[in-house]
């Protein structure tokens, strides 16, 4: 047996790497806490002592000070020891507060949510199967809405739709559109409000999510949209749709190839499928340099892949990647596929897949 030589420097580097990861993971929990409680918003208003910030946010001073300690040592908040005052630099406020798409504080809810499922995952990793989608609701619905709402508000009409040539014009003229796996339906409502000549239907399996969409549409007085509880493996094709949009939904499916074929069948000739999905390669070796890689594979293990495997499905996973996505779209009948960036969104890209004209 040959003795393994241990490089002490690599051991040290590995320990540092691990503690770095553990520290960052705890900082994530504090970002989530500070975001949920309004601490970050209160600090963005103006610098202050822990008592002033706590007072502004309606929180207890002692917890506020401890949480601020984590945010200061984590490099997100500045601290003036002489005045005992805390400051959120304006650049950090842009990334951690407000209704814009640059506010990535809601992303912190993903690790805190998925941490609840590690014990269940340990069971399915050993025994096979998966954790069913219902186990993630209703919190998943809220978390997902927090991730995508600002992107839809700021970029859906201006950028994402314009990736598909002629679609905006058709929407102004009046066409039938389905939003598959619409979640809380904010994307559907944004589209219906912008294009009153067109009619929209949002499909999802989650009643709590659909109820949110119906309430938002009703509150805004929007009548050209409806929401329906339907498995998108059974999208109706009569009458067909002129456009189908699907935001972050295909890779979760039990039978993604079947859903893509069904989408193709439900479109008019020349109709367009606009699919927003994860920006990654299908090959692990191409994702090693992607700084978001650990997040993507972890979300897959603890949510996207497991919900598919729970149904005896394909378990495509979050990181099915562009190469496989293009192949599967082609196999489903889409001859013409282009891929586009989403502004302010390092996680997703948009595929524009067009059905052949008759
Ligand atoms: C990752 S979430 C995306 C939600 C929304 N499109 C967004 O971007 O915020 C996926 C959504 O698809 C829904 N979903 C998953 N599989 C489905 C199926 N087979 N039929 C209908 N909806 C489905 C889930 O309930 C969930 O709301």
TrEMBL record:
One of the protein's GO biological processes: methylation
Name the UniProt record assigns to this protein: SAM-dependent methyltransferase
Coiled-coil ranges per UniProt: none
PANTHER family on file: METHYLTRANSFERASE TYPE 11 (PTHR45128), S-ADENOSYLMETHIONINE-DEPENDENT METHYLTRANSFERASE RV2258C (PTHR45128:SF1)
Matches recorded under InterPro entries: MeTfrase_dom, Methyltranfer_dom, SAM-binding_MTase, SAM-dependent_MTases_sf, WH-like_DNA-bd_sf, WH_DNA-bd_sf, WHD_Rv2258c
Pfam families: Methyltransf_31, WHD_Rv2258c
GO molecular function: methyltransferase activity
Domain Polyketide synthase-like methyltransferase: 140-358
Alphabetical keyword list: Methyltransferase, Transferase
UniProt keyword annotation of Methyltransferase present: yes
């Amino acid at each position: 047996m040959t003795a393994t030589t241990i490089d002490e420097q690599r051991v040290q580097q590995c320990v540092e790497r691990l503690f770095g990861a553990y520290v960052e993971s705890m900082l994530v929990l504090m970002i989530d806490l500070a975001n949920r409680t309004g601490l970050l918003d209160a600090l963005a208003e103006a610098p202050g002592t822990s008592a002033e910030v706590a007072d502004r946010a309606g929180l207890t001073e002692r917890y506020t000070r401890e949480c601020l300690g984590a945010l200061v040592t984590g490099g997100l908040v500045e601290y003036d020891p002489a005045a005992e005052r805390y400051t959120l630099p304006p650049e950090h406020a842009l990334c951690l507060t407000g209704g814009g798409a640059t506010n990535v504080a809601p992303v912190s809810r993903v690790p805190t949510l998925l941490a609840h499922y590690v014990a269940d995952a340990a069971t399915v990793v050993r025994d096979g199967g998966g954790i069913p989608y219902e186990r993630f609701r209703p919190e998943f619905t809220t978390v997902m809405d927090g991730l995508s709402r600002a992107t839809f508000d700021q970029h859906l009409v201006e950028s994402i739709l314009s990736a598909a040539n002629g679609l905006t014009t058709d929407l102004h003229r009046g066409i039938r559109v389905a939003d598959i796996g619409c979640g809380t339906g904010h994307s559907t409502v944004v589209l219906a409000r912008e294009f009153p000549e067109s009619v929209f239907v949002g499909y999802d399996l989650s009643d709590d999510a659909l109820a949110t969409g119906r309430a938002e549409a009703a509150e805004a007085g929007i009548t050209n949209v409806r929401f329906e509880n339907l498995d998108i493996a059974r999208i109706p094709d009569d009458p067909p749709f002129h456009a189908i949009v699907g935001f972050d939904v295909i890779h979760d499916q039990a039978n993604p190839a079947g859903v893509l074929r069904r989408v193709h069948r439900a479109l008019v000739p020349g109709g367009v499928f606009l699919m927003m999905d994860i920006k990654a390669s299908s090959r692990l070796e191409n994702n090693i340099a992607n700084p978001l890689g650990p997040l993507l594979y972890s979300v897959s293990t603890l949510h996207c892949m497991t919900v598919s495997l729970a149904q005896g499905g394909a378990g495509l996973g979050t990181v099915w990647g562009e190469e496989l996505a293009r192949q599967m779209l082609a196999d489903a009948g889409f001859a013409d596929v282009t891929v586009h960036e989403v502004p302010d969104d390092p996680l997703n890209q948009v595929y524009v897949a067009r059905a052949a004209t008759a």
